Amino acid sequence: MTTLEIAPKVSRGAYEVTYREAGTGPVLVMLHGSGPGVSGMSNFAANLEPLSRTFRTIVVDMPGFGDSPEVPYTKPYPEHAADSVVSLLDDLGIDKAHLVGNSMGGSVALEAAFYYPERVDRIVLMGPGGLAAEIFAPQMSEGGRRLFDFIAAPSAQAMRAWVDCMVSDPTSVSDELIQERLDRALAPGAIERIRNVFGSLAIPSAGGPMWTRTGRIPHRTLVTWGRDDRMLPLEGAFFATRRMPNADLHIFSNCGHWAQVERKDAFETLVREFLTVA
Questions:
Q1: Which stretches make up the AB hydrolase-1 domain (predicted)?
Q2: For 96-109, what is each residue's pLDDT tens digit?
């Protein structure tokens, strides 16, 4: 079986979301980041089949990304996306799931654990957004600047410049993946949708910033970070794990923001062990 052969499915619960799944066993939901042209499979296509040997692995297109439609944002995007994850679990008759979240997907996983604690088992975070109060890092990282450069003036060159900031070794990202993301990012309405996602982050959260709430998330959590992350700097990892009561930290060397790409085998092994060992 290859990931390319897995057909998408659509959940039409409280939220309409597209997803792909493979395997049997404990449920593992994988949540992508927020960059241009992103989808669940653009983040996790290479990881779906290996992880499906151990888990019922579900790769989601969160609202407004991939093939999932946008929704009206009445609160910050991660809270809507967390609601959509629980809507999907409801539709599939799943009581509880492990969550793996990359970048904004990490903040979505945390929102799901905060608002729906009984629906979340263990959590793996990968350079998660919203988790740290940046004390020493610039207000906007290099990766953040490249991201907004692309949104302001989309082009193949701007996409390549942004992707180069996501990894420690730019050769680890295939030309095919970059082209796929560029095609999605330039599709009609895609730029407007991502602008709406980031615009929603200005809406005040009823719970306050996530970094002020992490002490109330008791779930067993593995925080992973690339040592060379230029999107969300490594210092955020230490603030996060110091506050979370049951969080462990793993730092990947020779790795940027996409551990699932640059350190694929090590990432999959780490996830498998953390979610299965008592």
A1: 28-267
A2: 999 999 999 999 99
